[in-house]
Amino acid sequence: MNNNTTSHDQFHDNSGQDQKGISKKRYMPLLLINYTCLFVGSVSSSLLSKYYFNHKGSSKWVSTWVQSAGFPLLFFPIFLPYYLFKCTQRKPFTRFTPGILSLSIFIGLMLGLNNLFFSWGNSYLPVSTSALLLSSQLVFNLILSVIIVKHKITFMNLNCVILLTLSSILLALGSSHDRPHDLTRENYYIGFMATIGAGLLFALYLPIMEMIYKKVYCYAMVMEMQLVMEISATVLASVGMAWDGGFAEMKRESREVFDKGEGVYWATVMTNMMTWQLCFMGTAGTVFLTCSLTGGICMTALLGMNVLGGVLVYREEFGGVKAVSTVMCGWGFCSYVYGMYVSMMKKLDDHKQINQAIEMAQPQTQAQVVTPPSDHHLGLGV
What we know:
The chain has helices at about 1-15, 25-55, 60-65, 75-85, 100-125, 125-135, 135-150, 155-175, 185-215, 220-245, 245-255, 260-290, 290-315, 320-370. It is an all-alpha fold.
């Protein structure tokens, strides 16, 4: 009876709160908030970065720096719940061990390098081309997720990866005519390879973070790790800017180069800093609450929105090749979402069957204990 009661209690405990310390009532709103941050941050940061380059902004270090320099925004979700709203008993950075600190710094430096590659590619390629090229990160994400965090390869996620890979190959073969007239072939291919490199690093970043998050017991610690990572990436970008004269170039660029004026320049930089933080915060939260592969799938789904944003906002060409690539990208994403739905329904059915089995077994066990022993069992029978 004790074993069955314990299992029953554990089942109800797990149904009320998951292993990451998030109640079921809070899980879905928190996941939706992170999805929203990821959506808004990804689309707006991509468009603002292109706006910067379209209006004669040319510093790749500035574009790299703004991707992480908005880290002070992370102070709000880290410190306000404890010091202002009093909605948590955990003090910020509790159980934040030296090992977690070292990992956060290392991942932050890797993220800073990824930001540089992304800026390099985004400065040379149209938004639609760079966005679709970044979809190639998903195939790397799947492979690395299998190796690092032991994800299983299923028909649905493999089908998704194949479709997205074919989409990227199709784009690569047919998009060379899409480059701006003043862009040399050499710089175009540098941007092309830099974007692929950014996809590779990001694909490595996601499963590594999922592996690290298994040692993290609450969402607040995820934001604390994100703060350390963004500070590390900002230090890397700041060193590069100081070495290459980027800070002086930023002042000169705002006053003399940027064709929309100094006020619009700084508004663009500051807004871009905020949108990038939303993007990275949403990515980290999504990986923590789900898994690295789901985070990669969500990023890939948003690439389609970036493509449409580049076409609608900047009037970029959207010919047959990009149309087919976008359809294949959407097709692959939908197949993965369907696979997630089937898997989720199967798990719900399994949990329902387990719950029914526990409920059926418990009364029988209680009846056996409560029933008094017969005379035969007492040795008094004839």
